[in-house]
Amino acid sequence: MTATADRKSSEGSQPVPAPVPPVTVVTSYGPWRTALGQLRRNRAAMASLVVFGVILLVCLLAPFYASTIAHTDPFASNVAGTTVIAGQTVPVLAPSTTGLGLGVTPIGPTWDPTHYFLGADGQGRDVMARLLYGGRNSLLIGFFAALLCCVLAGITGVLAGYFGGIVDGVLSRLLDVVWAFPVYLLAISLSVVLLTSGVRIGPIFIGAGSLWLPVLIIGIVYIPYVARPIRGQVLALKEKEFVAAAIGVGSSDLRIMRRDVVPNVAPTVVVFLPLMTALSMLTESALSFLSVGVQPPQASWGTIINDGLNLLYTRPAVTLAPGIAIALTAVALNLFGDGIREALDPRARLRGGP
Amino acid sequence: MTLSACTSSPTSPTATGTGASGQADAAAPATFQAQHKGGDLKLLAKSAGGTLDPQVNYTLQYWQLYQTLYDGLLAFKKVNGQQSFTVVPDLAQALPEVSNGGKTYTFTLRKGIKFSNGQDVTVTDVAASFKRIFTVSSPTAGSFYNGIVGAAACLKAPITCDLSKGVVVDKGSGTVVINLVAPDPELKYKLSVPHASILPAGSPPKDAGNKPIPTTGPYMIASYDPNTALTLVRNPSFTQWSHDAQPQAYSDTVTESFGLTVEAAVTAVENGQADWVFDPPPADRLDEIGTRYASQAHVNTLTAMWYLPMNHNLAPFDNLKARQAVNWAVDRNAVVKLYGGAKLAQPVCTFLPPGFPGHVDDCQYTADSGKTWAAPDLAKAKQLVQESGTAGMAVGIVTQDDEVNKSIGEYLQSLFTQLGWKATLKPISANIQFTYIQNTKNQVQISLSQWYQDYPAASDFLNVLTSCASFTPGSDSSINISGYCDKAHDAKMQETLVTARNDEPAANVQWAAVDKQTMSDAVVAPLFTPKLIDFVSKRVGNYQFSKQFYMQVSQIWTK
Question: Which of A337, B218, B241, B410 has a CB 3.0–4.6 Å from the CB of B249, allowing a cystine?
C-alpha cells in the first residue's frame, strides 16, 4: 500500500507542497512465517525436502507397486517360484549348473519394473517391492519414534526446567540413568527382552512382532538427548522478564508454561524432529540388521540389508539398494533439519553462511 | 564326480573319498607313505569347540580331532566310506568275547601302548576311565553307559561312583570284563565313541576344561586357547599298533585357529593360507567353490536329518491332522534350495536317513504317492488344517539364528500363514536353541532341529528321539523334542532291540515298520538329509572321509 496525497483537493488555493516520497509499509510477519520464508530461500534445505518427498511418495506407493505393477507378494516366500526373462521361464532361485553344481543364486536385477526390477532375495521375494515396503516401515518407525521422543523429551525438559528442585532432581537423574547406557546397547537389550513377550503399558498391549515396539524402544532411548537442551533452555527462560511478570500477576504454573515457556521452546523441538527422525531411522536399521528390530516377514531397510548380507558376493544389489536408500534419506533429513534450525534460530547460522 | 586317490603329487587334487556325486569310495593307501610325512596342517574354525575333555565334549568339531588323539577299547575303522561304520579292536587286542547271554563282554588290553606322558596304558586306566564317565557326568552317561552294572547308582551319586562290579579288570592277564544289567547289541558302538576314551587313571575327576589330558593317538595337545588356536603335535610315545584303528599321522603339527569369519576362512583356503575350514561355506561362496575350486571341494553324504519336531502336547500340534498338514505342505525341494541346492541335500520322507540301517524308501506325504518324496500337496494340507479346527491359531516357529536355519524358518512362516495359522518366527542363538526347544517350559510348538548319528544303528534315531524315556518334561535335556510318548510305540522299539541282539537284519526290518508307524503318527516332519562340503587347500592330499567322524585329519598330508 502507498500513502499518496490527494492532489485534486489542494489545487489552486494553497501553494503546492513538496511531494511526499512514497512510503512502503512493511508488514511484520510472525516468527514462524519468517522462518518459513527463510527456509524457502535455503536451496539445500528445499532440495533435500524434495528428495525426501520423492522417497516418501515412492514408499507410500508400495502396495500399488506390489499389487498392480510387479504383481507380487513381498512377504511370501517364493523359493520354488519361476519368472519369465527374455521369453524364457527361469527359476527365481537358480541352482548352479556349472562345476560341481553347488549353491543356489537368486535372479539378479532385471531392470524391468514389472518383475524383479532389483532381483530377488534369498527367499525369492521381489527386492524392489520389499525395498518400498521396507521404506514405509523404516520411515514410519523413524518418524513416530522421533515424535514420541520429542514429545516426551519436551514434557520432561519443561517440567524439570520450570519446577526445578526435587522435580528437576528426580527427572534429571532418570535421564542420567538412560544416558549412562550406550544407546545401541540399551536399545538392543530392550529389544531382546521385549521381542519375546511384547509389552503392556496400561490398557495398551504392543505385541512381540509389532512395528510399534521399535518405535517405543527408539523413542525412549533418545529422550535424554532432546530433553537436556530443552531443560537448559527453560532454565534460561525462567530468568526472563516476561516470565517474572507472569508470575508477578499471579498466573498459574500451567498457564505460564503454556503461554510463555512452551511457545519459546517449540522451535527447538521442531528443529529436533527431522534430525531425530534421521537418527531414529538409522537406529531402526541397525536394530533390524541385528535381527532385533522389525521382525520377519515384515521388511525394513535394515532387515533387507541383513537378508542381503549372505548374497554379498553374488547379488550385492540386495544390500546396496536399501543402503543407498538409508543414506539418501538420512542426508536429506539432516540437511532439511539444518535448514529448519537456521530458519528458526538465525544465531545458529554458520559465520559467512546465507 | 569322483576324486581319485593319488599317492604322488601333493600339489594336485589328491583327495580320496566321496566327490561331488557322493557315491564313490576310493581306497585309502594301505600303508604309510613316508615321503609325505611332515609339514603343518592349518585348520580354521569360526570359534573354539569348548572343553578339551573327550569324555565331556559332545561337538562334531572336537570329536573329529579326538580321532587322532584318543582311543577306546574299540574304534570305528578309519577308512573311507561305508567301511568306516565297522567296529575294530583299538586298545583291545581283539573284538570282545560276548557271553552270559549278551550281558558280559571280555576284552584283553594290548600291551606296550603308552600315553603321551610316557605312562603305560593299563587295565587300571581302563577301569578309571569308565568310572570317570560318571564322575564327570558325561553327556551320554545316562543314555549310552547306563546299562553297565552299577551305573544306575553312579548316575544318582557320581562322586561315590563304584563300578567295581560293572567293569572288572585283571592286572595280571590284562583282561577287562564289562558286565551289563541287560544285553545291549549296540555296546560295541558306544565303546567306540570319544566318551569311552581310555584316559590316565590320574585324570581330574571333573571336566578338564582347557587343560589337555594325555593322549594315546598319534598327536597330543601342545596348547589350547579358545580365543586363538588349538595346536596338536606328534605324540612321542605313539607307535602304530593297528592301521585300521589308529593309523600313523602324516603332518607334524595340526593347528586349528579360531576367530576368522567363515567368509574370510574360505578366502584363506582359496589363497593357500589355510588348508581346511570346519564351518560350512557361506551360501554366496558355494558357486565359486563348485566352479573355480571344484578340485578342492569334497561333498559327502551324511547320515543325519533336518526335521521339524512338533509338540504333541500343545495346540495345534496335539492334533494329528495339524501334524499331517505340515508333512503334506512342506516343499522339501524348496527347503533343500535354502540349504544350498540339490547337490548338498536330499529330500526325505522317513525318519531314518537313506542308507542307514533300517531305512526303507517309503513316503506317506507326497503328491504322487511314490516311494520317495516328489512334491507337496498344499490343497490337502489346507483341508487338513480346516478339518483339525486349528485354523487361525498362533504358531511359533523356533529356529537357530544362522543364515540357513533362519531362512528355512522364514519359509515355514510364510507357508504356515498360507495354511491358515498365524505364524511367527523366533530365531534364537544356536548356542541355546537346541536346549531351549527341548524344555517343555518354553512352550515351543514347532522348531527346526537336526540330528546327526552318534553311531550307525536305527535306535540312535528312533529310540533316542521318540521314546518315552527320552522325554523329560521341564528339562533342557529332553531329546524327544516332540514330547511324543506312546506305550505301544515304545513296546515295539523294545521288541526290536531284543531282536537286534541276535538278528540284526530282522531287527532292521522291524525298525522300518517302526519308522512307518512313526510317520503315520506324523511325530515329526523330516525335511532332508544333508551333505557336507570339505573345502581344502590345493596342497592337501590323501583326503579321506569317514562316515562316522568325517574328514580324517591324521591322514591328510600337505607335503
Answer: B218
Between the CA atoms of B286, B288, B292 and B293, what dihedral angle is there, to the nearest 10 degrees?
-40
Does ipTM exceed 0.95? Answer: no
Gyration radius from chain A CA atoms? 28
What distance in Å separates the CA atoms of residue A156 and residue A222, rounded to the nearest whole number? 12
Mind listing the pLDDT tens digit for each residue in B46-67?
A: 999 999 999 999 888 999 999 9
Residues 6+ apart with CB under 8 A from B295: B3, B12, B13, B538
Q: How far apart are CA B327 and CA B18, in angstroms?
A: 31
Mean pLDDT to the nearest integer, B150-170: 94
β-pairing verdict for A204-206 and B253-258: unpaired
Distance of CA B63 to the CA centre of its chain: 9
For residue B239, the SS3 value is coil
Number of H helices, E strands in chain B: 14, 21
The percent of residues above 70 in pLDDT, for chain A, comes to 91
A2 touches chain B (CB under 8 A): no
Q: How far from B271 is each of B274, B293, B537, CA to CA, in Å?
A: 8, 11, 8
Q: Strand B422-428 relative to strand A104-106: parallel, antiparallel, unpaired?
A: unpaired
Task: Give me the helices (H) in A239-316, please.
Answer: 241-248, 253-256, 262-289, 301-309
Which residue does chain B place closest to A313, by CA atoms?
A: B284
**CB within 8 A of A336, min separation 6: which ones?**
A45, A48, A49, A52, A274
Contact A334, A341 (CB under 8 A): no
**Distance from C-alpha of B55 to C-alpha of B139, rounded to nearest angstrom:** 8
B471-497 average pLDDT score: 92
* pLDDT tens track for A53-71: 999 999 999 999 999 999 9
Residue in B closest to A79 by C-alpha: B334
> Given the DSSP bridges, would you call strands B394-400 and B446-447 parallel, antiparallel or unpaired?
parallel
Residues ≥6 apart with Cβ < 8 Å to A28: none
User: Count of CB atoms within 10 A of residue B59's CB?
Assistant: 12
Q: Report the distance separating Cα B470 and Cα B467, nearest Å.
A: 5
CA distances from B506 to B362, B371, B444 (A): 18, 21, 37
- Name the residue in chain A with its Cα closest to that of B531: A102
Residues of B in contact with A95 (CB under 8 A): 337, 341-343
Per CB-CB distance under 8 Å, the chain B contacts of A295 are 424-425
What does the alpha-carbon distance between residue B519 and residue B351 come to, in Å, rounded to a whole number?
7
What's the CA gap between A120 and A93, in Å, rounded?
Answer: 8
pLDDT band of residue A8 (cuts 50, 70, 90) is: very low
Separation CA A125–CA A134 (nearest Å): 13
The answer to whether A310 contacts B285, with C-beta atoms less than 8 Å apart, is no
Count of CB atoms situated within 10 Å of the CB of A203: 5
Interface contact A76-B401, CB threshold 8 A? no
Side chain identity at residue A165, one-letter code? G
The answer, yes or no, to whether residue B23 has pLDDT greater than 50, is no
Burial (CB count <10 Å: 0-12, 13-18, 19+), residue A201: exposed
Q: Are A288 and A98 in contact (CB under 8 A)?
A: no
DSSP per-residue codes, B320-336: HHHHHHHHHH--HHHHH
Cross-chain residue pair B299–A77, CB shorter than 8 Å? no
Give me the half-sphere count of Cα atoms (radius 13 Å) on the Cβ side of residue A134. Answer: 35
The residues, any chain, with a CB within 8 Å of residue A237's CB and separated by 6 or more, are A161, A243, A260, A261, A264, A265
Does the beta carbon of A207 lie under 8 angstroms from any beta carbon of chain B?
Answer: no
User: Residues B123-138: what's their mean pLDDT?
Assistant: 95
How many residues can be counted in chain B?
559
Place of cell 504356515: B416
